[in-house]
Design a protein that fits this description.
This protein is of the alpha+beta class. The protein is built from 30 helices and 19 strands.
């Protein structure tokens, strides 16, 4: 895995400042501690930080073709590079290395922009073609690897693996994007293509961009999408067998490495399935890594140990204190923009543990999105079934009224917590789903934001992001639609961002077999009833894995990484919360209503309400502003 940067003069062939290029490159030294190099020619500069995994002796970057007219800097792994190498050699291309990087330059020569459609893997790269004077950027289909870019006012186009590489450029305007702030306080992250800054963008998953000379900022173009086309009829038994074989093959191609390799093992269905299939493909015991928590309410290590014992893995466990809240400022520096998934803390720790043993780790990421593992999918489908029982003209006013007057009862058993369900049923599927996944719902954000800030949004609402994706969705089946929405927003914006930054902070490469695009395409074509059946998510997957894993693993309640925010904010982080939310910093931005911030703090710390999610979201926004604005912000 690596970090990449680049500078392209779109107005001519001005000299690229070598010192600036190195500074951009060095902001990402954690992504590639093994080697560093830059390439310059008039009007173009590329930089690369390398974590050596394949062809350690010859795979240095930036890398050029035979005559030096095509140069690439690349982050990722192309798992079918050997097959492509053989095909390109047969077409007359000469190779100097055994690396997957060199495949990219020859694939560009042979297929041009369509080369990305031939790659199977995770990747983000910048490629310079001197003959056509154009810069080509591409990002993998699911968004495993990141790519940021911007056009400076002086005509220089810049890009990098992390936003911090762009922030190292003095000419980058740093005006905050109001819509991104609205998105952040709804989702807890900023969905593609926006960043927190008006001037910088993320290249969305499955997109490419060709920036030409004497042209404005190029438009990103989609080259792939999750199809969700139901394939030929298939029995459940055949689907189970084919799913295991396809996943086994996705695991197999991810075992190629010239460095120590292992796996994360949480004890959940997905990571356990990956480890089970790895064990069958490996001659030596698999290295597995797990996090344990002192507080048993958050601890899943016993389930991980059960799988490790079954497959005889070399299992490594680190116990994390549930008071591990010292990473707040570390996370702000890692993510470069506001990011509020608190599971980033244990994710950071498990990556730290894994790197002590291995350089490459396989994970179970992506299984919940493809195979309908989240409970919210079950709720969304059930609610849509109820919506269709009543015409909208009767349903909306009825459930709007029930939602308004039914008391909020977070403390009560789930069966009595109907307020949110009523509010959701008054909406359509997309709005209802947004209502369910929002960290801070519409009514709360209306109270949170000042009138001036709300005016600056010019009518934009965070749900507009989901609506835009829904208009392009390839299926109107309720389950497929909400899965598609997650694959466009939550998966790349939250899950994969979290894993990339946490792993790269420790120079650890993470590979995700369940995000193999050929596997994702095939799963998307399965009948929805095989994924979600009688309220059970991952139905076909769990049934398929019964011969490999015990029922206690497959059918226990999904838990996932969690931290005790509610207790932290009433105990050890009490004063930090009060300083952040009640101090001069947030108030001085003009974004928030101070009285509402005070209400959140008072009601949470008194124990009357649990506002841990909105408080964490505000705390991380405050940490971002402290990092970005420094002393001026802290002093209000």
């Amino acid at each position: 895995m690596c970090g990449i940067v680049g500078i392209f003069d779109t107005r001519g062939q001005r000299a690229i400042d070598a010192g600036l290029l190195r500074r951009m490159n060095d902001t990402q030294s954690h992504r590639g501690p093994d080697e560093s190099d830059i390439y310059r020619e008039p009007g173009l500069g590329l930089g690369h930080r390398r974590l050596s995994v394949i062809d350690i002796s010859l795979g240095q970057q930036p890398l050029a073709n035979e005559d030096g007219s095509v140069v690439v800097c690349y982050n990722g792994e192309i798992y079918n590079f050997r097959e492509l190498t053989a095909e390109l050699k047969a077409l007359g291309h000469q190779f100097r290395t055994r690396s997957d990087t060199e495949v990219i330059v020859h694939a560009w020569e042979e297929w041009g922009e369509a080369c990305v459609e031939r790659f199977r893997g995770m990747f983000a790269f910048g490629l310079w073609d001197r003959n056509s004077r154009q810069l080509f950027l591409a990002r993998d289909r699911l968004g495993v690897k990141p790519m940021f870019y911007a056009m400076l006012p002086n005509g220089f186009f810049i890009f990098g693996s992390e936003l911090k590489s762009l922030l190292a450029v003095p000419g980058l305007p740093k005006m905050f994007e109001a819509r991104s702030i609205e998105d952040y306080f709804a989702y807890g992250y900023i969905p593609e293509p926006r960043t927190i800054f008006q001037s910088a963008f993320k290249l969305p998953p499955g997109h490419r961009l060709t920036q030409k000379m004497n042209a404005p900022l190029a438009q990103a173009l989609r080259y792939w999408d999750v199809p969700f086309r139901t394939g030929a009829r298939i029995s459940e038994g055949d689907a189970q067998a084919e799913l295991v074989e396809r996943l086994r093959e996705a695991v197999r191609i991810r075992l190629v490495a010239e460095v120590p390799l292992g796996a994360f093992l949480s004890g959940g269905v997905d990571s356990s399935a990956v480890v089970a299939l790895m064990a069958g493909l490996s001659d030596a015991p698999v290295n597995t890594c797990s996090i344990a928590f002192r507080d048993k309410a958050y601890d899943e290590s016993a389930f991980a140990a059960m799988v490790a014992q079954q497959y005889g893995t070399q299992h490594h466990v680190q116990t994390v204190d549930t008071e591990d809240y010292g990473l707040v400022d570390t996370l702000a520096a890692l993510y470069d923009e506001p990011y509020a998934d608190s599971s980033a803390i244990p994710t950071y720790r498990v990556c730290q543990l894994a790197r002590q043993r291995v350089t490459v780790a396989l994970s179970g990421d992506g299984g919940d999105e493809s195979l309908a593992g989240y409970r919210r999918y079950r709720h969304a489908v059930a609610e849509e079934r109820m919506r269709r029982l009543l015409p909208a003209c009767a349903r909306r006013p009825l459930f709007r009224m029930l939602g308004r007057y039914y008391p909020k009862a977070d403390w009560a058993p789930r069966i009595f917590r109907a307020k949110s369900t009523f509010e959701s049923l008054a909406r359509d599927l997309v709005d209802g789903y947004f209502h369910g996944v929002s960290l801070m719902r519409d009514a709360m954000r209306d109270q949170l934001f000042s009138r001036g800030f709300r005016s600056s949004l010019q009518g934009y609402r965070a749900v507009d992001t989901l609506r835009a994706h829904a208009r392009n969705a390839p299926s109107d089946d309720p389950l497929s639609l909400v899965q598609y929405l997650d694959m466009k927003t939550y998966l790349p914006g939250d899950i994969l961002t979290k894993v990339d930054r946490a792993s790269m902070a420790h120079a650890l490469e993470v590979r995700s077999p369940l995000l193999d695009h050929e596997l994702v395409e095939w799963i998307s074509g399965l009948p929805p009833g095989l994924k979600l059946q009688k309220g059970e998510g991952k139905h076909v997957f769990k049934r398929a894995m019964l011969q490999h894993l015990p029922q206690q693993i497959l059918y226990r309640r999904k838990q996932g990484f969690a931290v005790p925010l509610e207790a932290w904010f009433r105990g050890p982080l009490r004063e930090r919360v009060r300083t952040a939310l009640l101090g001069n910093g947030l108030a001085s931005t003009g974004i928030f209503q101070p009285a509402f911030l005070a209400m959140l703090v008072e009601q949470h710390q008194s124990g009357r309400r649990d506002f841990s999610a909105p408080i964490w979201t505000l705390l991380m926004f405050d940490a971002f502003l402290r990092k970005e604005l420094g002393t001026a912000y802290a002093n209000g």
